[in-house]
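Morning, I've got a small favour to ask if you have a moment. I owe you a coffee for this, so here goes:

…
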Amino acid sequence: MTYGVGVRADLLTREYPPHVYGGAGVHVAELAAVLRERIDVRVRCFDGPRTAEDTPPGVTGYDMPGGLTGANAALQTFGVDLAMTQDVAGADLVHSHTWYVNLAGHLAGLLHDIPHILSAHSLEPLRPWKAEQLGGGYRLSSWAEETAYRGAAGVIAVSAGMRADILRSYPTVDPDKVHVVHNGIDLSGWARPEGAELDRAHEFARGRGIDPDRPAVVFVGRITRQKGLPYLLRAVAKLPPEIQVVLCAGAPDTPQIAAEVESAVAELQRVRAGVVWISDMLPRRDLIAVLASCTVFVCPSVYEPLGIVNLEAMAVGLPVVASATGGIPEVVDDGVTGVLIELEQRQDGTGTPLDPDRFVDELARGLTELVGDPDRVSLMGVAARRRVEEHFSWSAIADRTLAVYEHVLHG
């Protein structure tokens, strides 16, 4: 596949370095880097202008319009979207990521008569708890997303599970327009440290209260309903006392879930040792240090289109114990790179386990059995790294993304 020098794609995103708090931001940063080697890529993002010193050329950051100060968060988002829409002029296609910029992509496609492609990292109908966070703004975000999906020239789903969710949530979308392109992983940036670097990693971990010489389960994720953290905290109470639990968890969606998690963690710390909560967002090097000082990664999500955190942990050589939901089974090879925990869920958009007690018990059992088998942990860790190398490199993801561009542009 070849592209003329003049072909230009504008990528629209809520997050872009240094302001990244979730998987979508990681995805856009890595995708833009590899696409930039092949076509003209412009990135348009939130959180204000970037400095030339720490940002590649072709990146434009937007501030919220001053007149929307104090407005509902969804309205503030739309204000940034309108500014992006005008600036897409001159692009051959526009590619938006998440509802935050889906409206900008949709309007840019109409205004400039170019195809709009969107990547589905999550779906508003499957995150009804966001009404707690946005109030009436959740109805606006849902409207923007649905409008964009209905009008898109192409949709990229980050997993086959996500593709099924899209077609179920938006049944008028043409299935032929929905393509599966997994998330990727920066293999050079995510790897297990060795030698002096491993010593430094262990030293950092000790400074954060983690004992690298003891078995440990580690969780990384935002404090949001979809990540299933309250279920994990219940499972932690059932783990053998020698197992440490490291929670890299911050950026709560609402004060209510923040208080719920804070109370549960405090109770666990009262009754057992080795419960470490790291609430600040760690830079990559320090997060790798934490991962490399632990034994098993855990992902108890009730909604997870794919789960970049699982790829990151596997790249560092950790096996993963995760709920069998969404795109996770496409990442974690059950019995080879980790253990999948069966999860029967309500189909009302909340993802609530039908039998929460059983899910908690199975999660605790899976963690206990794997952590207690060092040989199995070692074999699975090696297999986990090999799996991300073979299936989730960004070069392969770029090839598949460009194939979607080619299909949309030239049929």
Q: What stands out?
A: The chain is about 45% helix and 15% strand. The mean pLDDT is 93. The first strand starts at residue 8 and ends at 13. The first helix runs from residue 23 to 35.
